Structures are given as C-alpha cells and as structure tokens.
Amino acid sequence: MPHLTSTTADATGTGIRTALGIPGYAHPLVAPAQWAELARPGLPVDWVVLDVAGGPGSRPDPHCLEAVARLRAAGVRVLGHLDLTYGTRAFGDLLSDAHRHLDWYRVDGFLLDRCPVERAELPGVRRAVTTLRALGDTAHIVLGHGRHPHPGYAEDADQLVTFSGSWSDYRWSQVAEWTADYPSDRFCHFVHSVPHGHLDEALRIARWQGAATIYLTDRTDRGGRVDPWETMPGYWDDIVSLVGTGVSE
Question: Whole-prediction pTM value?
Fold first, then answer.
C-alpha cells in the first residue's frame, strides 16, 4: 500500500540507509567553497551532478576539471547532466553531450534531467539508457522524472528521481504503490524550501516512502524564478549529521 505521509510519520525500524544526492551546485568558479566541501572525507554522499552549462559546455572548463578531480580523489561519484527535455531532445545531441562529459570529465554516469514519465516515451528513454551504458559498463544512470513515472522506467535505470519539489507538496505526498516492488536504493527525492525545524520530519518521510538517496534544502525557488539546488543549504552540517547517523532512532 502507498504511504500517505503526515507530520506524525515515524521512521523507526524502516531499516533504510540514507545518502545524499547532490543535484548540482552553481559553477565552481561561483561556488568554490561548496564544491570543495563535497570532497571532504567521510560525507554521506551518493553522487554529485556536474552541470557546466546546461550540460558539458562547449569546451573543457578548468574550474570544473579541478572540482571533479578533487571529488574523484575523495571517492565521490560524479554524474554528467543530460537534458532530455521531456523526450523532445534529439538523440544525436544527447549522445554528443554524453561523449563530451566522458572525454573531458570522465564522469561515472549520468542524470537524465526532465525525463518523461509516460509509457509512450519509454522506448526512447530505454534507447538512450542502453546507448549510455554501452559507452561505459559501470555507468550509473539516474532518471530525473521529478514525479512517479510509469513503472517500466524502473527496469532500465539504476535510480529514479520520483519527487522533486517544495516541502509544502512533499509533506503530504503519496508514494506510488508499485515502488514497493523495488529496493529503496532505487529512488531519490529532492526537496526544497524545507524549514530547519522540519529536517527530521522530511527525513522520516523519505525513509517511509522508500527513498534512500535524498537532498533537502532551505533554499527556495522564489516562485520558479531561481534554481533552489544551486547553493548549499544553510543547515548543511545538520543534514550531514542526520543522514550520517543512518536509520533514525
């Protein structure tokens, strides 16, 4: 049965081990300290998305090369950002971006952002994922739907982003019933506008809904005018502490 979340949700005994997925901070030239922080040893980070300029950019970026080198030295997985534009992106353009990510930054996989959710678009996404895996056998593929897609998508990707949005929507969100057929490490949730006082509650919701990779931030999208993922949350240390403890007591 799907879990209807509420302010009384209790994650005790869920057994889910949670890690952080970083959707992608601002360019390392703009946010050098934040990128450096991600390479700090011992952080509970699953992966970090590299988005140079809506993708890999037109040429190797020295600041991004330096940031990625630090992450790789720290053992942090880096995913290249690829925009599917809800299934309208030309396959050749997508493949070209993937090659640049691999050739320049040696990424460990890809986040396919703005991924469609409908069954009719599944063959096109499946073709893209199969091709990307052929470029590297160990490529980690994350489909960035932002909501629950047709369950067929779960057969092709390593992970699905099944929620991306505001805290006001997340705290009353409902998980799709079919997700219970898959392990929690298959799902990711990105939540912005989370007040500091609700961090524990947001983490409990993620664990109850079976999402093992999360990102929580107090940054807002200002009504869709800004990217809430570009800067590190003000309570970063608290998130690291909460996630690093593993299962809630």
Answer: 0.91
